[in-house]
Amino acid sequence: MLEITNIHATVEGNEILKGIDLQVKPGEVHAIMGPNGSGKSTLAQVLAGNEEYDVTEGAAHFLGEDVLDLPAEERARLGLFLAFQYPVEIPGISNAYFLQAGLNEIRKSNGLGELDAMEFQELLREKMELVAIDPRFADRPVNDGFSGGEKKRNEILQMAVLEPKLAILDETDSGLDIDALRIVSDGVNKLRSPERSFILVTHYQRLLNYIVPDYVHVLFDGRLVKSGGKELAYELEEKGYDWIKEELITAS
Amino acid sequence: MHEVSNATEKEHYIEAIEEMASQKTPEWLATLREDAAKRFAERPLPHRKLEAWRFTNVNPIIRNPFQPIAESGVDQLASSDVHPLLYANDWIELVFVDGWYAPKLSRNAGPGGAAKTAGLHEAIAAEDDLVEAHLGHVLGDGGNVFSDLNTALAHDGALVHIPKNVELDRPIHLVFVSSKTATESVIHPRVLVIADANSEATIIESHVSLAGEPRYFSNPVTEIRLNDGARLTRIKVLDEGPQGYHLSTTQVRQDRDSRFDGFTFSMGGPIGRNELNIVFEGEGAECSLRGLTLTEGSRLVDNAISVEHHAAHCNSWIGYKSVLEDKSHSVFCGRVYVAPGAQLTDSNQLNQNLLLSDKATVNTKPQLEIYADDVKCTHGATVGPPPQELVFYFQTRGMSQAMARGILTYGFADEVVNETPLDPVRDRLDRRVFDKYSPK
Amino acid sequence: MGTTDARPEAGKYTGSRVEQSNREVAELANREYKYGWETSLESDTIERGLNEDIIRFISEKKNEPDWLLAWRLKAYRHWQTMSEPTWANVSYPPIDFQQQRYYSAPKRKQQPLNSLEEVDRELLETFEKLGIPLEEQKRLAGVAVDAVFDSVSVATTHSEILEKRGIIFCSFSEAVLKHPELVQQYLGSVVPYSDNYFAALNSAVFSDGSFCYIPKGVKCPMDLSTYFRINAAETGQFERTLIIAEEGASVNYLEGCTAPMRDENQLHAAIVELIAMDNATINYSTVQNWYAGDEEGKGGIYNFVTKRGICKGVNSRISWTQVETGSAITWKYPGCILQGDNSVGEFYSVALSNKRQQADTGTKMIHMGRNTKSTIISKTISAAHGNNSYRGLVQVMPKAANARNYTQCDSLLIGDKCGAHTFPYVEVRNSSSAVEHEASTSKISEDQLFYCKQRGIGPEDAISMVINGFCKEVFDHLPMEFAVEATNLLSVSLEGSVG
Q: Does C425 contact chain B (CB < 8 Å)?
């Protein structure tokens, strides 16, 4: 599904990613953990196609296509979804309108017919039920005036509607209380399927109690320095990121 | 075109200019004065149709033939008269009486310390290169008809020079006193401040009157040049006597990464105008301009501010407040101009007015002129009484309405005072605001 | 004095359906100004220039009563003493007022017109093409339309239904003849001829426009609308609109405008006067889409308009909503005089300046009565070499106790050659009043665009989405059809402005 080889990326001249390799197969859930500033969010933004970041080396193939040269919307239309760490507010544009516009673009590029307003309303209602979100969200402007938790839930709703093949969740758990975290992870779990893959970018192990990953990777100073199963997350929780640092120092 | 003939109103000034020209002066200064005299002759005196003076009626100044002042009234003043105006023994405090520098009343001035301070007249006489290099050039073509008049007629004032990398350990206080001798006269104090690269200093400029209630017109100009990385705080206290008219112009030019913190307190004089022009010439420069205007009776105060962003990555912050009583009038015009190419400008402007009387008038014009696209600019203005819900809250706690309003007014005004650096300056201002508004 | 049969040069519109649709496809591809064609029609157009004889001619042509001619002449004489205003933040070469034509009307086969059937086919087709069908069977349901072509009103629909309720909705010329007492009472009562240079000019030479009178207690059962079309070359358009809502009456009024694409600038100097008595409400919406000129700034309409309403009665309300996307230069400040206690004035505006367009627009809210309230929401968008200025006055007079104003001006910049400026004037002379002004200027947010793109929305759609969101507060105050039109106009007008 996703194959990243030796990605290097810079932002404003500073190298943040220093050679990342990662393979994600259909149906897999990968967690990427790491301390603040290690490059987790940069990886997510680079994969989604944010032009603020320059990829200086390496390749990324998504469903066999080299995506690094594709604009962000083309990647989205292929089925790559990013749940933003800081979802953006778009005043004046309702959630429903926004999602319908996005969904129809994605459908069009996949040779499917566009949904009309009625059909879309029906779909949206279903998805809102699925991820347990108040129907009033539909008419509110995109993220405008939302609380932090509401914004994160809205990202999950968008994911449910757009039905991506690969979803990258960038710190979707941060800032959530336990109830909101449960709602968000329930939403994700309902969307898990053998065809759909996830990359969970997170600082804390907490989220992984609710969404159990197949693989855990540790990102440190722009490199994936350790990979393992879900037990790696527990180990990290217990020993902290300093443990990794020490290991790295001893190794070198 | 709206033509206004100012021939008669300008006559006595032009005579004074001619008189000045007959005196022996260095050539560069004579040229500077001539150019200014020319501009003065060409520019119209203020009238209602001139946008910059639309709400500020200065006819009482224009129509009164204020005369040039022959000599300073310094001899009639004792140190004890001036002493209460000063702040501290170890500060550098220069006193000017009726526009003339008074070394005897001043303290710690001169070239000895880390910074140079001097009377402008003596600096010119001593052929100080700094004066020739900068006097009139910071102002350039800017300013207004009155700053032209100042350039043409200024005979004395202050020179302040902070050398490179000097972080001055004590404030500089410039006190402009008008005495009885200034009656029916016009004075043109001139201040030139040069802050060299990475220097840091604080300057207080006070304008007051002593001995009775002389009627005079003070027309000061302050020029400030901040070189790369220089940081200057300037506190201006406009506190002229009940018959002391005041129209001032301050021009600041800022180079790369310099910072200017300006405070303007306007509390005395029938008509007071503070024109403050900031020009960002180098990237990364910043300014924060705070103002507090307190008016009562039929006083008029006008704050005309312009910040011009000519370089990228500059930040400007303007926050002015007014409290108005009786039939007084406060005018605020804040103009933020962002030139093409001045990208990543961040500018904030807020003018807040508290109206305590139905006969008072507020005119506020916070303006933006923007020719670059990657900018973040906001401005705001509010006018109103102390919030009724707060007054009510105080009442529910047993205070009278008058008391509540007094406390709220004090709090509103004191916010600016509290941000002022230097305890002695802040304490004096705080006392002033407290006495004026706190419930008796 | 005579008339010239000025037959305009062969129009781009030939009438053939195939050609027309080809043209439309081509237009769509180029996303050019949609209404740039002209109608080839015989017309009565007077010679260039302006003098008292021209004014007498216009007045005579319209069979006006003597008092109106006298008023026009007074206005003209006053205009001659005035000079063109220069304070607005716009620049254009001096206008030679003697090179303009002050009257042009499509020639009528017979006079007067008794029914719509007698209206020239080409005129009907013109308006149909503009989306304003006038014929009985095709009329827009629920909207009565007064169609103004150059200097005259050609048709007014639905007037019979309105008449039954005592509502007068007709061309200004007709009102002068049929309801002279009303016209005489209110003409110039809100915008006196001496108000400003262009108001004086209009008062001297105004040709037609719409008149609307809603009697006491009547809620107008349908929206009223005037559609203005400039067609003739070198002709200025000077229309007047006068709307009177008596006690307890209410009306929604819509105004639309287009003009052909020409290399010469054309002058449009209109006046709108609104009068709201006790408890009356007038909502006035404008979608202004005059030809804006080309990328180089050649051609386009000079739109110098004076619009003002007076809330004369207690609890009255006047609301202006405008979407200004056209014109080379716009100079207009729809305002409200809030005289009645508890009266309310509102101004919602979207102004777009693209290409070389210049807009200097805003509002005046004059608070005179007690407890008066005003709201100003202004959204400006500047792109390419466009320059946009908000200029507004909020004035609270000493007797306006408890007056409230809230103003919000937001500017959006697209590209680094454009300009966005804000010139608010606030004057408060009452201590129980509260005035609040907020303004912001920023460029279109990269974060928002990236977020939209990440959801599969293409860059142009993303921009139009963000801009529509930016304008939503204003669009919400437009009737549905107008809001849709405004949304489309914005995206067309912005086409190609983002790299």
A: yes
What token pair was written down for B434? 């407290």
The reported pTM is: 0.82
The secondary element (H helix, E strand) that includes residue B251 is strand B244-254
Q: pLDDT (tens digit, 0 to 9) for every residue of chain C, 499 residues total?
A: 333 333 333 222 222 233 333 333 333 333 456 676 676 666 677 788 889 999 999 899 889 999 999 999 999 999 999 998 888 888 888 888 888 888 877 665 444 445 555 666 776 777 777 666 666 556 555 567 777 776 666 667 777 788 899 999 988 989 999 999 999 999 999 999 999 999 999 999 998 888 999 999 999 988 888 877 777 666 778 889 999 999 999 999 988 876 667 677 888 899 999 999 999 999 999 888 888 888 888 888 889 999 999 999 999 999 999 998 888 899 999 999 999 999 999 999 999 888 888 989 999 999 999 999 999 999 999 988 889 999 999 999 999 999 999 999 999 988 888 899 999 999 999 988 999 888 888 888 888 899 999 999 988 888 888 888 899 889 888 887 777 777 777 776 666 555 4
CB contact under 8 A, C454 and A93: no
Q: Does C441 touch chain B (CB under 8 A)?
A: yes
Greatest CA span in chain A, whole angstroms? 62
The burial of C485, by beta-carbon neighbours within 10 Å (0-12 exposed, 13-18 middle, 19 or more buried), is given as middle
CB-CB contact of B152 with B17 (8 Å) = yes
Query: Which of C82, C64, C397 is CA-nearest to residue B359?
Result: C397
Q: Does C452 touch chain A (CB under 8 A)?
A: yes
Give the side-chain half-sphere CA count within 13 A for C455: 32
The domains located in chain A, with CATH, are: 2-251 (3.40.50.300)
Cα–Cα dist C265/C293, whole Å? 8
SS (H, E, C) A191-206: HCECCEEEEEEECCCH
3-class secondary-structure state, position B343:
coil
Interface probe for C, chosen from A70, A88, A100, A142 (most Cβ of C below 10 Å), is A88
Task: Kindly state the helix (H) or strand (E) to which residue C450 belongs, with its residue range.
Answer: helix C446-454
Task: Say how far apart CA C267 and CA C265 lie, in whole Å.
Answer: 7
* ipTM computed for the complex: 0.87
Q: Where are the domains of chain B?
A: 2-282, 386-440
Contact B253, B138 (CB under 8 A): yes
Chain C positions touching B355 (Cβ under 8 A) are 428, 430-431, 433
Q: Which residues of A touch C446 (CB under 8 A)?
A: 52
What one-letter code names the amino acid at C275? I
